[in-house]
Amino acid sequence: xxxxxxxxxxxxxxxxxxxxxxxxxxxxxxxxxxxxxxxxxxxxxxxxxxxxxxxxxxxxxxxxxxxxxxxxxxxxxxxxxxxxxxxxxxxxxxxxxxxxxxxxxxxxxxxxxxxxxxxxxxxxxxxxxxxxxxxxxxxxxxxxxxxxxxxxxxxxxxxxxxxxxxxxxxxxxxxxxxxxxxxxxxxxxxxxxxxxxxxxxxxxxxxxxxxxxxxxxxxxxxxxxxxxxxxxxxxxxxxxxxxxxxxxxxxxxxxxxxxxxxxxxxxxxxxxxxxxxxxxxxxxxxxxxxxxxxxxxxxxxxxxxxxxxxxxxxxxxxxxxxxxxxxxxxxxxxxxxxxxxxxxxxxxxxxxxxxxxxxxxxxxxxxxxxxxxxxxxxxxxxxxxxxxxxxxxxxxxxxxxxxxxxxxxxxxxxxxxxxxxxxxxxxxxxxxxxxxxxxxxxxxxxxxxxxxxxxxxxxxxxxxxxxxxxxxxxxxxxxxxxxxxxxxxxxxxxxxxxxxxxxxxxxxxxxxxxxxxxxxxxxxxxxxxxxxxxxxxxxxxxxxxxxxxxxxxxxxxxxxxxxxxxxxxxxxxxxxxxxxxxxxxxxxxxxxxxxxxxxxxxxxxxxxxxxxxxxxxxxxxxxxxxxxxxxxxxxxxxxxxxxxxxxxxxxxxxxxxxxxxxxxxxxxxxxxxxxxxxxxxxxxxxxxxxxxxxxxxxxxxxx
Length: 703
Description:
Blueprint: H1 6-14, H2 20-31, H3 36-45, H4 52-62, H5 68-75, H6 80-93, H7 99-108, H8 112-125, H9 128-132, H10 135-140, H11 144-154, H12 163-166, H13 175-189, H14 191-203, H15 207-220, H16 226-235, H17 239-252, H18 258-265, H19 270-279, H20 286-295, H21 301-314, H22 320-324, H23 332-345, H24 350-359, H25 365-377, H26 384-388, H27 396-409, H28 412-424, H29 428-441, H30 447-453, H31 459-472, H32 478-487, H33 491-505, H34 508-519, H35 523-536, H36 542-548, H37 554-567, H38 573-576, H39 585-598, H40 604-614, H41 619-628, H42 636-642, H43 648-661, H44 666-673, H45 679-702
């Protein structure tokens, strides 16, 4: 750029009187000059360890081929961060004459990230013969990530030389490496590979190799592998081998394996028997379902759990005839499953009705619990008399379940009895459930009963009473609830009271909550007020919540931030941003979530800046979760630009978010990241590209 005085800037970089930050700014200016003089000066400055990272980046921006040999020479005596930056610079320069030196560098490099970055650059610049020079050492390198890079490269090649290199990888300790190597060999060798693996499976006494072959067969999912797996399953005396065979046969799902699996079920080993039963889930046949139902008779919890798990996947209305054979069984485990199965398939006839009625008289709490749930699912209101029998059951869970079941039907006869139960039941959970049911009934006749619950000793009951009154009453409930807002010691009760009072008491509630937020001495009361104002979420709450951001307690600041997010008002963004640097980790995370709740494009830059400042991988999931819902096409440009950010965390987050909103123009940008030295960046970019392509294809099909 002509307005940059290159000579003056160079002098500034070389001056011993300038600070490091001033020199870095000067280096950045030189990168924007486009001047060959700047390239020469920066090359001369490469020995400076303090500025080396900035200088390498600047040379990459300038992209002048004359700096290539100097960057390569510097590579041998730099730290990991600089080496990775040199690889990026070399890619921008695009001089493929450097492949020979890169191969040398690859051979001597020990750092996994640098080695990965160099490998990818060699594959970009070099011919297959050049890349092949490093394939053996890449495959032998003790890192699954580096080995996977080689396998991904070879997956699109057909050169026969790679075959002998890949066979050892099929016995790697890493499953991805094993399966990828086998997939490449399958495409190139086909039946020959299977023949070799079959022979190995039958003949070898090496358990590890056997397990690897079995795992590969399951991953390939080929029906050709079923017979050797069946033979091994039946003949092997090794428990680990049998379990692996069962897992692979389950994945393949070929009916020919049924006989072998059923034969193994007869074993005395509980783990093998349970695994066999799990494998049956891949075979949706009536005889399988019947066998699984029969296995419920076992006294083993593990086997019964496996049978139930398989049956839950297989059971259909067509299996009802088999189920009915067991309606008369005294075995509670079978009755328990039948109740769950009936509820799942929603099948009702006279026999089913009688079975459920009989189960409602069971002394087994688990059977009774599932029978009560089935009544609700089947909408079997004709069984309410039996349901009511359990309102005073000795088990708290049964009382709660029966009351919920009765409440589902809003039957007044039942609810009248439930009201009486409130007066005598000692369980807080039961009383809270009763008050919830009274609210859901919508019948004002129960307001007196709910009003009495406002004075209950249990906070959950009082909180439910407030919510119930909101559903049952109108403005007349304000006088009932206001005392709880003023004096109740429980935060949940106060929050529910405030929310309800806002609905019926109007704007005056904001003033009361504002006083509580800004003047109450107890921090939990202030925090509760902030939460309640967030539940209100109206524009009138913004002023006092903004003031509360300066509170000395992080619980108050955090609740105030979240409450501001619930207003979804763009004007609060500028107030929230400074708290991204709050000393409290909780408050910082609450800020991210609040900005995500607001969900407009202006939130993205401050969050990305926050990521840079924190540079903490643990934040990736939290940021992605906070932003994934609001992200739409409005964010596309900023996210696309962020893919070129220097910090890997920003790239990963941007790639993952682009998986939702990226388009055709985004794919080339993400493709560039597939050659990054950082495996997390590469994986995120790859997943994003696949997601974008699926969305595009789905959109085309729907037209």
